[in-house]
């Protein structure tokens, strides 16, 4: 039981005193970057999907 108490105490000390936490403004900037990059990626994948769908639909209708 003593090992568990020591582990919890050391973990709490590490989280509160030894970890460098990012500032809120940095987190907001990173979140916006991820949101924008994900949106662009989704649009590109959607465009590729639409192009393949249109091309295959045309191909199947022609033959």
TrEMBL record:
Topological type in the membrane: Single-pass membrane protein
Main location: membrane
Keywords: Cell membrane, Membrane, Protein transport, Translocation, Transmembrane, Transmembrane helix, Transport
Location relative to the cell: Cell membrane; Membrane
InterPro entries assigned: SecE_bac (IPR005807), SecE_sf (IPR038379), Translocase_SecE/Sec61-g (IPR001901)
Pfam families, sorted: SecE (PF00584)
Annotated TM spans: 31-52
Homology family: Belongs to the SecE/SEC61-gamma family.
Subunit and partners: Component of the Sec protein translocase complex. Heterotrimer consisting of SecY, SecE and SecG subunits. The heterotrimers can form oligomers, although 1 heterotrimer is thought to be able to translocate proteins. Interacts with the ribosome. Interacts with SecDF, and other proteins may be involved. Interacts with SecA.
Task performed by this protein: Essential subunit of the Sec protein translocation channel SecYEG. Clamps together the 2 halves of SecY. May contact the channel plug during translocation.
Protein name, UniProt field: Protein translocase subunit SecE
Organism: Chryseosolibacter indicus
Lineage: Bacteria, Pseudomonadati, Bacteroidota, Cytophagia, Cytophagales
